[in-house]
Amino acid sequence: MAEQPAGVLVVDDHGLVRDGLVALIGRWPEFTVVGCAADGERGVAMAGLLRPDLVLMDVRMDGIGGVEATRRITAADPEVRVAMLTASRLGDDVFQALRSGAHGYLSKDEPAEGLHAALAGLMRGETALSSTIAAKVLDEFAPSGRSAAASPERLTQRERQVLRLLVDGLSNEEIGRILYLSEATVKKHLGSIMTKLHMKNRVQVAVYGLRQGIVE
Would the pTM of this model clear 0.70, i.e. be above it? Predict the structure, then answer.
């Protein structure tokens, strides 16, 4: 039986952007748009009602912005993947968004093929964070004041292996296949890594791994 397409919720206060995303995503058989919202409050409500697999969330909107909406959505459903979509490349809202539980950050300048690859990667459990953005957020997620408390020395050998593969962009399933572990065991190791490093999600862990030189 063919795998069901991933349901996508588009949240953006610009009608042309929403319509463009709907039309674009509609060309990709592995995705289907299940709903659209013009503001964060409506986006939160629709996410609770529709239970999408993936949310494309504009960062800056009137009322409840993308950061707060993401925080509410991921708190209610930790399994949903949220990708922030914004014209702002390096604003403080990007850091806040990733802290709120977002799994990626995408520019509205992203070409169609780049967006397609990013969304597919998110659904495989990967992160969607470009190298240029990662270079800017390294210090934000691992400031010197907490580097000792979040030292990689606290990780076990197995956790280091999982972290290295995570930084390489592998999904939980792929990490498990390489290390001969079940996906549930990989999730358990990731949970332990996040606890020890005081991180909230895979994006923060991956950026931390880059900072520590685990992967160039």
Answer: no
